[in-house]
Amino acid sequence: MKIQKLSTSSETADMSVLEIIVSPSLSKRLSPASLNSVLTIAAASSASEESKAVFNETATVAFADGKANGGPKITAINGVWVEQSLPVDHSYKDLMENVFKATFTQVDFRSKAEQVRRELNKWTSDQTNGLIKDLLPLGSVRTNTDQVYGNALYFKGTWKVKFSKSERKTETFTFSMTPQCLDIKRSFSMYFYLPDENDGLDNLVKKMTSTRGFVDDHNPTCRVTLDDFAVPKFKISFGFEASKALYHKACVEIDEEGAEAAAASFYERHSYTPNRNRFVADHPFLFLIREDTTGTVLFAG
């Protein structure tokens, strides 16, 4: 298996959510960070103080916008929408606003469910620079909806070494003239994992999700020279819903300049309990965009 790390610098994220991105018939891409955020917020009332503190610390580091310092632009927004006729638990509202940094909004699900759905979709589009549209389908927000939890994540970064825009399909991509073992410090990285076999992606994902510390253990520590480095220029998107309660969409685009990615997730709670050395990527591969200080996986596909 060949592995090459790109971008700007260097923990281990929970990779279990990654198992749903690959199936024999469908290539999927998602944002573990966005899914983890919205599910953590939905379970916040029963979360331990330790888990709340971990969420807060991780969000502070992993989602810090580095644009002002020449780094990538990144925004992560949480929101909670609550049926206005329900009593407000002020300790819960304080938890949402101060620990999870979520906007807390009272809305009229009972008589304006469709209007609220459109407002939530507009919120998603606005927070993701228009990359994620119509996340909540018609009928997904209903008159018996009590709460909706949302997360929107946006990332845009440029390559440290940009690719040529020439017509050539393969470009020389040199990190240094001779191998050097260094402590490569960067904040955000894009990882490409290319299986040796053309049909080896399923086995790679299974190995990654079952091996603790896989990403860190396969993180290169030496600068190397590649005669050829080629990955397809692409824009891909994927969405799914689970039990008509969890909705998620992600979009990732890479080109010669860098990577732009966005994701959004909504989780609904209703008045009833719902059912619950030469690297050429010419065959299916796996990618991650990760904040390396915390090990938070922002996007995967």
From TrEMBL:
Position of the signal peptide: none
Protein name: (rape) hypothetical protein
Family matches, as Pfam families: Serpin
GO cellular component terms, semicolon-separated: extracellular space
Gene3D superfamilies, alphabetized: Alpha-1-antitrypsin, domain 1, Antithrombin, subunit I, domain 2
Lineage: Eukaryota, Viridiplantae, Streptophyta, Embryophyta, Tracheophyta
Family: Belongs to the serpin family.
PANTHER family: GENOME ASSEMBLY, CHROMOSOME: A09, SERINE PROTEASE INHIBITOR, SERPIN
Name of the coding gene: BnaCnng61710D
Residues in Serpin domain copies: 15-301
UniProt organism field: Brassica napus (Rape)
GO molecular function (one): serine-type endopeptidase inhibitor activity
